[in-house]
Amino acid sequence: MSNEKKKMIVKSKEFSFGTDNEPLELDCGKTLAPVNITYETYGKLNQAKSNAVLILHALTGDAHVAGYHSETDKKPGWWDEMVGAGKAFDTDKYFIVCSNIIGGCTGSTGPRSINPETGKPYNMDFPFITISDMVRAQHRLMQHLEVSRWLSIAGGSMGGMQALQWGVDYPEAVNSVMAIATTTRLSPQSIAFDWVGREAIMSDANWRNGEYTDDLEPDQGLAIARMVGHITYLSDEAMDKKFGRRLQTKTKQSIDFSRNFQVESYLEYQGQQFVERFDANSYLYISRAMDYYDLSKKGDGDLNKSLEKVTSPFLVVSFSSDWLFPKSHSKELVKALRNNNIDATYCDIESSYGHDAFLLEIDTLGKLISGFLASRTDEVNKNVK
Amino acid sequence: MSNEKKKMIVKSKEFSFGTDNEPLELDCGKTLAPVNITYETYGKLNQAKSNAVLILHALTGDAHVAGYHSETDKKPGWWDEMVGAGKAFDTDKYFIVCSNIIGGCTGSTGPRSINPETGKPYNMDFPFITISDMVRAQHRLMQHLEVSRWLSIAGGSMGGMQALQWGVDYPEAVNSVMAIATTTRLSPQSIAFDWVGREAIMSDANWRNGEYTDDLEPDQGLAIARMVGHITYLSDEAMDKKFGRRLQTKTKQSIDFSRNFQVESYLEYQGQQFVERFDANSYLYISRAMDYYDLSKKGDGDLNKSLEKVTSPFLVVSFSSDWLFPKSHSKELVKALRNNNIDATYCDIESSYGHDAFLLEIDTLGKLISGFLASRTDEVNKNVK
What we know:
Number of strands of chain A: 14
Shape of chain A: globular
Number of helices of chain A: 11
Oligomer: homodimer
Number of domains of chain A: 2
Largest sheet of chain A: 8 strands, mixed
Structural class of chain A: alpha/beta
Largest interface: A-B, 53 and 53 residues
Radius of gyration of chain A: 21 Å
CATH topology of the largest domain in chain A: Rossmann fold
CATH superfamily of the largest domain in chain A: Alpha/Beta hydrolase fold, catalytic domain
CATH architecture of the largest domain in chain A: 3-Layer(aba) Sandwich
């Protein structure tokens, strides 16, 4: 079959708008221009343009969802096990699109982009962005790609927030939605963790109100924010299995402040890796967008009302040990969808991986996704005939 | 009755040792001298010296468990609702003792105390301390007070760890133990949160390897550590009830990075309050002692074995929504106690307050404690007769 071991090579693409045409309108009342969007595509758009699937990334993700950028590239995209020939998002069947969100730091316009008014990076002059703003920018990309309706829109975590927002803001452009390990609004506990992460960044002496240089970045603060995040992405059970109280060395335990416990070493490693690939100001803006996200706003605070214009079927997936985006939130969403007579399939996957499960429970989640996509394809083809 | 509104005035007392007599032996192999212990007592020791109860404080607590230091003092001790005339720890009946742990910063010898070898504060030259070390110092205080056997030893959270350690290290000196919202060892998740807190302190430019001055302390780092702590002390449910997603102002929401959500304002307030009363180096040492605490060490890693010499009855209390010291840990302890034929009463109190419940569920917890103390008193009196 097509599932051979050959590396799938993919190139990032760029799309810009706002200079010769409409700038991006933002929820805060400001506009953004120029707007650059870095995106990747996989597979081919069919003649009927009916097989396009949009994948949306989480807080620290990027457009590189699968494959490799070159033959020598060592690490594949962030959801490589899910996207490719013969995989859940089967690139032999579907035209897959993934773009870096605005506010991000891996190609799309964000706080470190050049402010055309000053010729310098925006930094904290970057306008506040919302999940809806991200979606509005993606809609411009959709028009550019000449896709008029997505077969499906899928996202996990913050990607799921965007997927939900697509369903509400552009019901005519969405054939179906897959909302995975997500919520219609963060709990105060999650807002609190985000607050601590941002405090760590903004307290870092190198942050300098966001005006740090590329040589001297607020790495310590950003690493702390990442470490807090990582604790919330894992479950207590997963940490217990993965690390327990095991020490780094097997010699007699030395009591000191260095990273003696394996879980400490893990966190430090995650923090260090992260600062090499992510930007502190982007972290501030994106995490803030998550805090303020509330799908019910469209319905003046009434979630049922906000879903009134939604027509597309939903697949909603939660994971049993996810305490950051708990299943109670998914159930609330499903209830509101069904109150609106929307066809909502819900599955809580038994998993000990916590929130990270949406990146790790490949088999179970993959089957749900491929089945859902197949049924949506059948539905579309039936309507065409 | 004696439960009138008159303020109970109490004075802190000091006890020093190690200069003219044995220094304090520490688990790390070093010794500590001089050792000062700040403590408070409430009620009177009876003639039979059979009514002494030791209360042990948590990570950021102190010796001031109840009452006021003066008539003008506004805030009572940290467990004032539990300790006093007619209260659960009834000062009309019991002689209550509470001391600040070594390593602390409210009177007892800790990292900011003067190192006699240098004439300067120890700071990071302070030896590593363990929960057993804290208990060993308390045992010296016990001898000083001429108490030969505690009617009961009670503690919540880290205080509970000390209470357990007392039962194991000095079984002959302990008539009963109350282990509340505690564990025989922290989970990797808790170790991870502690790690993040210490990273925040040690990353603060003002920390200067612990050599900060009183004018310029690592307040930002310590505040972040405290905020992380506070999130873990509350439950998701408690935060939802207390703050939800409510905003500080009732006007139209302004999206920015200031503390807009009530939960953010709460955290910031807690952080600010904390840095005024607590020391950063103490936080490092004490939280590290918690990480390394493992009651099973006494039994070479076997909890059952570590409890072999314990004879006193136990009251073990957990709280349903406490995810930092979850009930599964208490159940494990109770099982190990019962495996050793120790009389262990266990209660999981239904509460939405999370770990903080041990400070807040006064009525239910108070009844359990007063009942347990009464039954222990009866038992002691019966044996005397």
